[in-house]
Amino acid sequence: MRELYESFAMSNVQNKLKKRKMKRLKDYIDLTKPTIMFLVIFTGGAALILEGSMLDDPFRVFLCLFALYLTGGCANALNQYLEREIDAKMKRTAAKRPLPSGRLSSTHALIFSVSIGVIGVLIFGFVFNWLTALLSLSTILFYSLFYTLYLKPNTDQNIVIGGIAGAMAPVGAWTAATGHMDIVPWIMFAIIFFWTPPHFWALALFCKDDYRKAQLPMMPVVRGDKSTLKQIIVYSFILFGVSLSLLAFGAGWFYMITAVLLGVILIKKSFYALKNTSEKILKGLFGYSIIYLFALFTAIVIDGFIS
User: Fold this and answer.
1) Distance between CA atoms of residues 212 and 200, nearest Å
2) 178: burial class by Cβ within 10 Å (0-12, 13-18, 19+)?
3) What Rg do the C-alpha atoms of the chain give, in angstroms?
4) What is the 3-state secondary structure (H, E, C) of 183-235?
5) More reliable by pLDDT, 235 or 1
6) Do residues 63 and 70 make contact, with C-beta atoms less than 8 angstroms apart?
7) For residue range 152-207, what is the model confidence (pLDDT) as tens digits?
8) pLDDT in tens, 8-55
């Protein structure tokens, strides 16, 4: 009976340790902002599929996307490390993120952030090419230092300029595959770049109290709701035009129809939000912006196969 009790107790201890390790692993993954990184991997993967030369080697595709996750995750983790005191002031992040909630120490977070960044850059450099490694390192430094420490606390255009970092995945994936630049991945970059302000400003509109409390000059806090929504409309029109520019570089009928439909809906929703600034409408605009980008890049991939 005693042996049975000891065996049960040992099993219980092992289960608790396993759960603790899994929670700790989740906290480290949360540092990388996995929902954002899914978007990065998706857009980078779309560029690899469209370019095509690496598709006969699935392991290299995996390594490229893995390195994209490591370098992008490094930038996000450093962002959280540097903003841990700001995150503690905002309801949206205080309990959810591992640093302000106390689930991870800042030292461990910093070591983890730098480590995955170094590994990602080295994979790009030694397995692919040093052009991609340099682009990845530049993106890490731009987002984690310039955007986080200078742009975000000092200008309401922070997310516009900072969007450069989030839009680099197609360019990095393309250069990893080819070793050189091309116009097509830069158009994909431009799509994500001009998509970013409508997407994040829609979020900022219904989170502006958090940003005001943290004293961050996000557009709705500085310019007000109406002005922000007018900017969203302007960027939605620009995004619509940029998305159609892919037609001049080989995109076919399927992409054209999808891009037109998605763009018209985004513009329509933006105008509707200007007339009705309720939280439900703003959250609907934010949610649709996510659907828009995933659907558009899915159309790029499908069009590449059928054209």
Assistant:
1) 15
2) middle
3) 21
4) HHHHHHHHHHHHHHHHHHHHHHHHCHHHHHHCCCCCHHHHHCHHHHHHHHHHH
5) 235
6) no
7) 999 999 999 999 999 999 999 999 999 999 999 999 999 999 999 999 999 999 88
8) 555 555 666 667 778 889 999 999 999 999 999 999 999 999 999 999
Q: With contact defined as beta carbons under 8 Å apart, do 208 and 156 qualify?
A: no
Residue with tokens 């980008």: 293
Cβ atoms within 10 Å, residue 55? 12
CA distance 38 to 172: 15
- pTM of full prediction above 0.90: yes
**Phi, psi of 52, deg, nearest 5:** 90, -20
Tens-place pLDDT, residues 215-266: 889 999 999 999 999 999 999 999 999 999 999 998 999 999 999 999 999 9
CB atoms within 10 A of CB 247: 13
Domains of the chain: 22-179 (1.10.357.140), 182-307 (1.20.120)
Reading the block at residue 252, the tokens are 């076919």
Match 């692993």 to its residue by tokens: 25
Mean pLDDT for the chain overall? 92
| The dihedral formed by the CA atoms of 191, 193, 199 and 201, expressed in degrees to the nearest 10 | -150
Please tell me the distance from the alpha carbon of residue 220 to that of residue 129, in angstroms, as a whole number: 41
Cβ atoms of 175 and 136 within 8 Å: the answer is: no
Tokens read off for 164: 């450069």
Instruction: Return the closest-CA partner of residue 251 out of 174, 188, 194, 196.
Output: 188
Q: How far apart are CA 227 and CA 47, in angstroms?
A: 34
The whole-number pLDDT of residue 90 equals 87
Q: What CA–CA distance (Å, rounded) separates 194 from 218?
A: 17
